[in-house]
Amino acid sequence: MRRPLVAGNWKMNGSLQQVSALLAALDSLALPDTVDVAVFPSMPHLILAADKLKAIAVGAQDCSVQAGFAAMTGETSATQLKDAGCSLVLVGHSERRELQGETDDVVASKFVAAQSAGLVPVLCVGETLQQREQGKAIETVTEQVEAVIRTAGVDALANSVLAYEPVWAIGTGLTASPEQAQQVHEALRNAVACHSDAVAQGLRIVYGGSVKAASAAELFAQQDIDGGLVGGASLDPDEFGAIIVAAGK
Ligand code: PEP
């Protein structure tokens, strides 16, 4: 039985004051003890979040390809994130693949760097609308995962989380239907199972893309959906709380 994870990606949002208020609201939520919960604030807010949150894990939205200290101006290493109180890190979010031109190889290097510093990487994969319309959704996301397996080996996935986030559903209000999402999650699990059935069965694959409290229960009821990676809705503590409750049912 896989334990669900609900994670909030705050992206580049929030002043110190707004984030402090959000952290206080989250810390007072009554969380089901059957769900793991995490938030991914911006870099300047990580230490504060790790300090304030008792039952919610903290992760960063990105890390450097170099795990340790290095002359890399503007970068933050997984070692520094761990030191700041993080336990997780997103790698390969579609906004970084798109805006920063991160390739599968770069994402795989970040995955390895994260694990070598003791962080759990949350590997984000997803197809564009064009790729979906061309019938290439499963091929695209499978290749994104295979690139990490080629670099890190399949056993490395045992200590990671996979996030399926169709690019066309992120921040657009368009959610994949539960059936569309399940189809891709199942295909991803089968692809991993070709390397190791044990790793595939234990791997948490969460869905992301305009998840709301109203859509969460049906998505999370799917056999291969093990929770959610939530963007916009995670900035509202009541909405995020309701999504967490849905994952616990
Ligand atoms: C995300 O960016 O990871 C995400 C899922 O965003 P949203 O929920 O806003 O679509």
What does this structure look like?
With 249 residues, the protein is α/β, with parallel strands linked by helices. It has a single domain, classed as TIM Barrel, CATH 3.20.20. It is built from eleven helices and eight strands. An eight-stranded parallel beta barrel has the order 1-2-3-4-5-6-7-8, surrounded by six helices. Helix 7 runs parallel beside helix 8 (178-193) and helix 10 (213-220) runs parallel beside helix 11 (237-247). It starts with a strand and ends with a helix. The mean pLDDT is 98. It binds phosphoenolpyruvate (PEP). Phosphoenolpyruvate (PEP) binds next to strand 8.
Q: Looking at this structure, what is the CATH superfamily?
A: Aldolase class I
CATH topology, what is it called? TIM Barrel
Q: Structural class, judged by helices and strands?
A: alpha/beta
Uncertain regions: pLDDT < 50 for 5+ in a row? none
Bound molecules: phosphoenolpyruvate
CATH architecture: Alpha-Beta Barrel
Q: Going across the major beta sheet, what is the strand order? A: 1-2-3-4-5-6-7-8
Helix share of residues? Answer: 40-55%
Radius of gyration: 17 Å
Strand coverage percent: 5-15%
Overall pLDDT, averaged?
A: 98
